[in-house]
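call fold(seq) -> tokens
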Amino acid sequence: MSTPTGVRTSSRRGMALAEIVAIVVLGVVFGFLYYALVMAWRTLAVAMGPFGDLAQNVLIGGWIVVAPLAVFLTRRPGSGIIAEVIASIVEVVFLGSPVGPILLLSALIQGVGAEIAFAATRYRHFGLGTFLASGLTAAILSFVYSVLRFGWWGQDLFALRLGLHLASGLILCGLLGWLLARALMRTGVLRDLPAGRAERAGRPGQ
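ret:
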């Protein structure tokens, strides 16, 4: 169980250098991973034949996973948004993503969506339930954005598209993000970050 006072005190300070480095490293690493997922999206779209347009909904959660992970590591409001945007910059500027500059707006929206669940707990809880809620809120917000952008409303496969989108947010963002967070915690590399300090103090927020 977390200690509310400690969390509030931490959030009032500026980010430590280790936290800034962690967010940047996460953003860069996931920028490359997100780009690889774009290539996988193209392959999956072909494999799905007439339902290929749904491939983006199947994989959407994988493009958001860095956001809850960044919040878990730093326990800082906005860290998930920053990590998502950095990842999109890497994709667009350095890797030439075929999605183009609009990806930065998508990343911003996805990052905001992922942070809603943590903000609802005032950044005090970081367990599986919060990660799953983060994946769901991110998926919902990104779906609303995509409906407006691509005109999905009223299409024959709208319900299926929505179901796949939400499931992907839960699994590829929420569940996968939590598993990655726990795996990183076991390595000991987070010992100098808020997540590591909370774990040692017996208040990992879970």
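The chain has a mean pLDDT of 92.
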